[in-house]
Design goal:
Helix 1 packs antiparallel against helix 2. This protein is mainly α. The chain contains ten helices and three strands. It has a three-stranded antiparallel beta sheet with strand order 1-2-3, covered by helices on one side. The radius of gyration is 18 Å and the shape is globular.
């Protein structure tokens, strides 16, 4: 039942933009019902259902034109899946987020999410899905020949794009710092990092972040 409501919601979300008016309304109504049930299960067991509820919510926000909500929810789905070891759901969340940004012309961000999806599917062992992504997106194949280091310009553009998402959805300073630290660590592919700010002419340590036991720990 859980798989049915999750994948049925995603399938309807994919169909909406191709449907006529009556079919579109029918899909949106059903999509809302699927999401409400997932949200109910999320309250009982967030470890299993937070990712699914967030991803379906992101797709619904996308269809309704609530782009900032969609950005926040895609990121929430990715983060929740990573925190709970749901690599298959994380791969799917990355893939859907990539499609969202690509449709809006943010090619650099879209490619970055797509590569994360590719890596997540590889960790899951989904060989057929990897071949499908590589056939559809030539840049994934080209990456095998590219240097392992991320070009500084790409790092900066991606960090700015994701920081913008974080700021749009966070107004509590501690939460903002936590989110930005996680984004920086993920983007750099690092194991640890620190945030230094200038205060009274001197550098002050505001927060540090490290990967421990496959989880990201941010200390303010």
């Amino acid at each position: 039942m859980a798989d049915y409501h999750f994948y049925a919601a995603l399938a309807r979300a994919a169909r909406v933009e191709l449907a006529g008016r009556e079919e579109r309304e029918r899909h949106l109504s059903a999509l809302g019902a699927h999401r409400r049930l997932l949200e109910e299960w999320r309250r009982s067991c967030p470890e299993n259902f937070a990712t699914r509820a967030a991803l379906v919510g992101a797709e619904l926000a996308r269809l309704e034109g609530r782009e900032l909500d969609a950005m926040r929810l895609y990121e929430e789905a990715v983060r929740s899946a990573g925190a709970n070891g749901l690599v298959h759901n994380q791969a799917l969340a990355y893939e859907r987020a990539a499609a969202f940004y690509q449709a809006r012309g943010f090619e650099l961000v879209a490619v970055t999410y797509l590569r994360q999806a590719h890596e997540s599917y590889a960790r899951w062992g989904a060989a057929g899905k990897l071949r499908q992504l590589e056939e559809r997106h030539g840049q994934l194949q080209r990456r095998q020949e590219a240097p392992s280091a991320t070009p500084l310009a790409q790092l900066d553009m991606y960090a700015v794009a994701k920081a913008t998402q974080a700021i749009s959805g966070r107004i509590v300073l501690d939460e903002l710092v936590d989110t930005l630290m996680r984004i920086a660590l993920e983007n750099a592919g690092a194991q640890s990092g620190a945030l230094l700010l200038v205060r009274d002419g001197e550098l002050a340590l505001v927060a540090d972040v490290a990967v421990a036991r496959q989880a990201v720990d941010v200390r303010l």
